[in-house]
Structures are given as structure tokens and as C-alpha cells.
Amino acid sequence: MGDPDYVDVPVDFLVSELNITKLADSIDRNEATPSDSLRPVALPSGPGTDTTHFSIVDAEGNKVSATLSINYPFGSCYVPKGTGVLLNDEMDDFAAKPGVPNVYGLIGTDANAIEPGKRMLSSMSPSIAETRERIAVIGTPGGSRIITMVLLGILDFYDNKDAESIVNNGRYHHQYLPDRIFYEPGALPEDVIDELRLMGHHLQDTGSDYGNMQLVIINKKTGKLEAASDRRGIGSAQTIPAEKE
Known about the structure:
Strand content: 15-25%
Shape: globular
Structural class: alpha+beta
Number of strands: 9
């Protein structure tokens, strides 16, 4: 994967029903598939701590899901003289040296190598999801775990769960390498953990919660807004009545 302006990314094939069905059919429902039998894509990576997300819906119905990051703590640790602006170090999201882990342990390939004008890969996944009845504006910080957090949130949304439940539900994550399922304390019932281990999965309790999801749900019929901020973070959810002209 890499910037499609520089790398041939077969998007149509990747999202095609044929490919998705083939991948789904390849999943063994009874036994874990060792990661070393698949093409490795990453090494251990912890949750990020220097990313912010906000979800906004205004009185006109405009929707914004935005994730902002300076990547590493204090970014590049450099402030240009006279600006007061701390520069980020998002270039670390490039594969500065293909095959060598970046500061978060992720390994990149030549497709994500540094080039002038090129955009780096990122786990940030600000999203807007829609059903016949509702619209969700959703996102979260969290490093390489962002993708699974947003996916779990969207699946809960399609299961018609309310905003508070979605942002506060237990979380689990797998990213090929290390070959294990990470889960928050209490996120998985003991019988599920036992069953997964019998199937050959390796599981690890993270020892603490992670993520800071922000979500707004719109009821398309009534126009009612439902906002929720993750109990794990320091954000807040607010609805502000529109001023009458």
C-alpha cells in the first residue's frame, strides 16, 4: 500500500465482491491461522497518544469526521523561530528505510518509501456510516489500533446500538504480528477466551483501556442528534441548540 498517485494500488480488486468473498471463505472457523503463514505486514505497535479526533454535525446537516496527529510525542520536537508552531513528524509514517520498523514498530515497503509530494500511509480512519434510519460520524485516535476500533464501532452502529454503548464497548485488536489478539480488561468473556485458545489463538490482556472515540448519530426521520465521548479519554460530547434568526 502507498500513495495511489505514486503506487499502483488495485482498489477496485481489493474491494470487489469476488476478492472479499475469497478472503472470507479462506477464514478457518475452527482453527487459528498462524500469522507466519500469511504475508507479514507489521511488527508490534502500541496505541498512539498524540492524536486527536472530533466528530461534528451542524444545524445545516453538514458532517465532519476529522482525525489530527503529530505522530510521536511532541512531534518533531522542533519549533521554527518566531512561529510558536510545533512541527509534527508524520514523515515517520513513511517507510524511511523499507523493511525496518518505525517508532511504533510498523514495517513499511518500497510502496510507502519517501518521495517528493507523496503522502504517507496512516492508520487514521475518520468515517461516516449510513443506514436507512441513521447516520454516524465516528473516529478515534489510537495508533495502529484505530482501524479495528472504528470497525467495531461501525459494526455496533449497524447493529442499531446507541452512541454511548458504541463508544464505551470493550475492544480487541489483531494486526498479524505479533500473532495474538489484544483485548481490554473485561472485553471478552472467559468462555470466549477459552474457546479462542482451544482454536489456537494467542490472547493478551492489554492491562488498560485504549482509544478515545468521538461519535455523533443522526436520526434521519426525526433529525435528533445523539452525541457520545469515550469514557477512556478526556473529550466531551455536546449538543448546542441552533440560534433562531
